[in-house]
Amino acid sequence: SLVRVHRLYLVLVLFLVAEHAASEVSARRFMWAYRVGASAGAVYNLDHWYLKYQALGPAERLQGLFSTAMTSGNLHATSFVGAVAVALGLTGWLRVAGVGTGILSGVGLAATFTRSSWLGAAAGVAALVVSGRRWRMLVLGGVAIALLVALVPPVRQRAVSIVIPPSEGDVFASGFTSSGRISLWLTGLELFAERPITGWGLADHSRLIREHRRADATFEAGHFHSNLVQVAVATGSVGLVAYVLFQGSLLVLLWRRRRQSVWAWAAIGVWFNFQIAGLFDWSFGDAEVTYQFFWWMGLGLSGAGPGLVDRDQRS
After folding, report:
1. What is the mean pLDDT of residues 161-166?
2. pLDDT recorded at residue 312
3. C-alpha span between 126 and 310 (Å, rounded)
């Protein structure tokens, strides 16, 4: 159905941005617009979250303009990773703007208390370190994260729950959402085994999930909270292979361009952020998240941008 797959049309953003950003002037204008938009959105979201936090306490997660804290978390994570790359890879006012946006997006990301977004952002920054040989950044980033976790109790509680089952009275209901996702993934694997070639079709899967609900399920869902599981169930092996090849080809092309273009280097970080966060959420279910992802992919593949200089090497 052309209507049911309408969000997949957002892939056109990749080609439109790549074409227009081939001009260095246009690419910088795109980046300025993105920085302004991301900063304004972060300020708005943080302002509203702070007012709610004052009233409701640490259980209140930043949601902002969007439907859930997970959507907001994925958006702030993408903006944060891109800002880190811009701050490290450019000079002048765009670098200053990158630092400012990075701080705002980083605070917003922390306030969402969305663990998958935290993991995605960490993976994105780690990818920037490895692909750009910014080893000093790894040390500084690790120190900053350690201080944040140590000094802010709600952040520490949420971060620890990634690897250690939450205790009774967890204000974020981590165990509820974690076990619920595992149940959904197992349901998805069972459904994939039933129709392994072409899958169950592109649609809202609320009814399908409800009909195959496991006894250990903890919440209702219309998707499988994982890009790979969702694609596998909806489109079978045919769609899953196509999806993996598409995503893999993006990474290969960006990797080849990373020394010639800061935008490509930044897009590598965004790519890893998207993939890791998408292991725990259906990213394409949020048009805002998908739009940002394809925007960065288009910018990175445009061929424009100043070359990446390895600041950790000595001549």
Report:
1. 64
2. 44
3. 15
For the stretch 58-90, pLDDT in tens is: 557 888 888 788 999 999 999 999 999 998 888
d(CA 10, CA 203) in angstroms, rounded, equals 17
The DSSP-derived string for the chain is -TTTTGGGGGGHHHHHHHHHTTSHHHHHHHHHHHHHHHHHHHHHHHHHHHHHHHHH-TTPPP-TTSSSHHHHHHHHHHHHHHHHHHHHH--THHHHHHHHHHHHHHHHHHHHT-HHHHHHHHHHHHHHHHHHT-HHHHHHHHHHHHHHHHH-HHHHHHHHTTTSPPPTT-TT-HHHHHHHHHHHHHHHHHHHHHSTTT-S-SS--HHHHHHT--TT--S--SS-S-HHHHHHHHHHHHHHHHHHHHHHHHHHHHHHHTTT-HHHHHHHHHHHHHHHHTTSS-GGG-HHHHHHHHHHHHHHHS--SPPPP-TTS--
Radius of gyration of the chain from its Cα atoms, rounded to whole angstroms:
20
CA distance 82 to 10: 20
18 vs 25: CA distance, rounded Å: 13
Give the Cα separation of 250 and 245 in Å (integer). 9
State the Cα angle at 219 between 218 and 221, rounded to 5°.
140
Q: Rounded to 10 degrees, what is the CA torsion of 195, 7, 70, 94?
A: 130
Q: What pTM was computed for the model? A: 0.90
Largest pairwise CA distance in the chain = 64
Contacts of 169 by beta carbon, 8 Å cutoff, 6+ apart: none
Distance (Å, rounded) from C-alpha 40 to C-alpha 100?
Answer: 11
